[in-house]
Structures are given as C-alpha cells and as structure tokens.
Amino acid sequence: MTTARIDLPQGTLDLLILRTLALEPQHGWAISERIRQVSTDVVQVPQGSLYPALYRLERRGWIRARWGTSDNNRRAKYYSLTRTGRRQLHAAVDSWRTLAAAVGQVLDMT
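^ that's the sequence the OP posted. Answer follows.
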C-alpha cells in the first residue's frame, strides 16, 4: 500500500527542524531521518527541501552550524538551536497547536 504524498503547509518544515534540534545538535541527514522515523514515514524531507530550510534558519539566527565528525567518521555540518531559535520554536508550537485545535473544531462540526 502506498501513501499519497502530502505537502507540508508553509513553515511546517521549519517547525519540524527546530523541534528536532531541540533534542540535540544533528547533521542534515540525521535531521531528515529523525523526522521520518518519528512521523512513521509520513513526513519524508528531501534534501532539496531540507538544506535550503537549514540555510534559511541559519540566516535568521535560529540555528547555528559547526563542522564535526559523524558516527561513520565523516566530516559533517552539525546544526544546533540558538537561544532565539528556542524562543521561535516555543512560539511556533503554540501557534501550531492553536491552529490545529481550531481546524479540528471546524472538521468535527455537525
């Protein structure tokens, strides 16, 4: 059984990346894999979407990057949340939950 592709609403990928990085610094591939695993394969982030989002978040000052060595002994860029990014994450989570609850109410109306 194949799952239909679902496009993420604008800003959702940023939220998912920030939430993933709230746990610990990670490199790009690990971020996309963690999102895929936690979403039970529903959200699959292609590299063509992930890296532009990471650069955008870095430009906004919400994440910072540093070079390190991955588990397989390769050079990789690790991303971590900044203080500003943590504040943005909390605000985005609050907004998302408010929106999701409101949409749920409309969908459940009789």
